[in-house]
Design goal:
Two copies of one chain form a homodimer. Chain A has about 250 residues and is α+β, with helices and mostly antiparallel strands. Chain A has two domains: about 5-145, Jelly Rolls, CATH 2.60.120; about 160-240, Arc Repressor Mutant, subunit A (Orthogonal Bundle), CATH 1.10.10. Chain A contains eight helices and nine strands. In chain A, strands 1, 2, 3, 4, 5 and 6 form a six-stranded antiparallel β-sheet that branches. The radius of gyration of chain A is 19 Å and the shape is globular. The termini of chain A are far apart. At the A-B interface, strand 4, helix 3, helix 4 and helix 6 of A face strand 4, helix 3, helix 4 and helix 6 of B. Chain A binds a DNA duplex (30 and 30 nucleotides) through helix 7.
DNA sequence: CGAGTAGTTGACGATTGTCAAGATGGGTGG
DNA sequence: CCACCCATCTTGACAATCGTCAACTACTCG
C-alpha cells in the first residue's frame, strides 16, 4: 500500500477527479462544476486513528472521501461504541449533522485517507442558484435514507452468516464501482469493527471467515480477502441457501 | 376512537394546522407558508389497509401524516416484509424516493388516517426561491439520517427487553410532542408488526408485555398501553438496569 | 353465531454471545 | 536486526437468550 500521497494528487479538481460520477458534481454542467470547485477546500491527508470530527462538534462542512476509509460511529451509553458505517471513496460524510448544526456521530480514519471538504453554508447558497445542484443534494440525502432499509433488514432478520456475506458482497460491489477489484481487496477495518457494525460478536465473525474459507467461498488471509465464488456469496447473503423456508413475521 | 373525519377537519391550512411546529412550515415566514399551502393537495381520508404507495410506484409527492398512523415496510426476498417504521402525525413519508423517483418501500395505513400531499417537483421549485424552505428541507432529510443511528444501536446491541422498552419510550415521547398523553395511548400496530420492526418474534413481544406488566412498569390491555413507571422504562430502554456491565465490542 | 385472525403461554432447541486460552503478527525499542 | 510485547485474531467449551413449534384463548367481523 502506497502511503505517500503527493499534494498534487489530492489537489481538488472535480472535473479531473477519479471519483467521476460517484460524487456530488454528478449531472452538473461544466460551468456549475467550476463554481462548486471554488468552494471546496483541500485538506491534508489524514492518518489512521485521526478524527475527522467527533460527536457534538459543531458542524460546518460535509466531507467526501477521496481515498482511504473512514468509520462513523456513535458512542453508546455503556461506554462502548456503535459503528454506523464504513465510508469509501466517493461517499459523503456528515449529512446527519445538518439538522442541528452539530455532529451526531464521530468519524475516525481507518487508513491513510484524503477528503474533500464542502463548507455547507456555501454549498447551500450555491444550491440556491443552481437548481440541478439543489436537486442533486436532495437525491444524495434521499439515497442515504433509502439505504437504511437494507441495514434494518440485515440487523432485524438475517442470521450471522447472511450478515457477513451481505457485508462482503456490499464491499465488493462498492469497490467495483470505484474501479477496484470486486474479488480481491483488503479490509481496512478490524474484525471487532465488522462485528460491531453487523451486530455480531468478534468471535462469530472470526468463525464465519473460517467457515466461508472452508466452504471455498472466500480465501481469507488476515485483512486480505479474495472472493472465490461470488454467486454463492450472494446466495448466502440473500438467505436463499441452506433451505431456510422461514416465513417469520410475514404479516 | 372517532372514525368520522369531516372534510372540514382535514382542509389544508398549514397556518391553522394542529401540527404546528412539527411539520414542514416550521420556521417559515407567514407569506412563505402561504406559498407552500398553495401547492399542498388535500387528500381524502385513508382507511385501514389502504396503501398510500407501494414499492416501485413512481414518486411524485411527499406525504405528511396529519392524523392516524402509517407503516412503511420493505418486501423481503423470502416473501415476508420488513417494517421500517411507524409514522405518526407530523412525520413525513417518501423521502427515500427522491433519489430515483421511485418509491423504495411501501406505505400502508394502520388506522383511519389523513395525509397532506406535497408534490415534490413544486416543492423543489419553491425551495429554489425560498432559502429558508430549502434549508428546512435539508434539515428534514438530515434528521431522518441522524435518527438511523439509534435504530442501528437498538438492533445491533440491545436485547429484547431493551428493544421493547425503547419502542414504548419512543412512542410515548412522540405522542407527548403531539399533545397526546405520554402515559396512556393505543397501539395502532399489531404485536406482529412490533416484533417485525424490532427484530423479535411475536411470541417474544407478547411475553415481554406480560413481564413488563407483572413488574408494574406498564399496564397492558390489548392495544391499550398505560405507562406506570416511565423512569424505570427509560432505564430498561437504556440497558442501565439489571446489572449488565457489558463492554462488548467496545473498540 | 361462527370462523378466522391476533394474541398468549409453554416446552424445547439452536444460534450466537460469553469466557478463557492460545496463536499470530506488526510495531517498537534496545 | 532481532526480540519482545501487545493488540488482534482464532479456536474451543459452555450457557443463555430468543426463535420455533404447538396448543389454546379471546377478539373481531361478517
Amino acid at each position: 500500500m502506497n502511503r505517500v500521497i503527493s499534494i498534487e494528487s489530492i489537489k481538488v479538481a472535480c472535473k479531473n477527479c477519479s471519483l467521476g460520477s460517484l460524487c456530488l458534481p454528478m449531472g452538473l454542467t461544466p460551468p456549475d462544476v467550476e463554481k462548486l470547485e471554488k468552494i471546496i477546500k483541500r485538506n491534508r491527508p489524514l492518518h489512521r486513528n485521526d478524527h475527522l470530527f467527533r460527536e457534538n462538534d459543531s458542524f460546518s462542512s460535509l466531507f467526501v472521501v477521496k481515498t482511504g476509509t473512514i468509520k462513523t460511529y456513535l458512542p453508546r451509553e455503556d461506554g462502548g461504541e456503535q459503528v454506523l458505517g464504513f465510508h469509501l471513496p466517493g461517499e459523503i460524510i456528515g449529512l446527519d449533522a445538518i439538522q442541528d448544526e452539530r455532529h451526531t456521530c464521530s468519524a475516525k480514519v481507518l487508513e491513510t485517507s484524503a477528503v474533500c471538504e464542502l463548507p455547507f453554508g456555501q454549498l447551500e447558497e450555491l444550491a440556491q442558484v443552481i437548481p440541478s445542484l439543489q436537486h442533486q443534494m436532495f437525491k444524495l440525502l434521499s439515497k442515504e435514507i433509502a439505504e437504511e432499509g437494507k441495514m434494518l433488514t440485515l440487523l432485524g432478520k438475517k442470521n450471522a452468516e447472511e450478515r457477513l456475506a451481505s457485508f462482503l458482497a456490499s464491499l465488493s460491489c462498492r469497490f467495483k464501482r470505484r474501479g477496484f477489484s470486486a474479488t480481491d481487496f483488503y479490509l481496512s477495518m478490524s474484525r471487532n469493527e465488522i462485528g460491531n457494525y453487523l451486530g455480531l460478536a468478534v468471535e462469530t465473525v472470526s468463525r464465519l471467515f473460517t467457515r466461508f474459507q472452508e466452504e471455498g467461498v472466500v480465501r481469507v488471509d488476515r485483512k486480505h480477502i479474495e472472493l472465490l465464488d461470488q454467486d454463492r456469496l450472494e446466495a448466502v447473503a440473500k438467505g436463499s441457501l441452506c433451505a431456510r423456508t422461514s416465513e417469520s413475521n410475514s404479516a
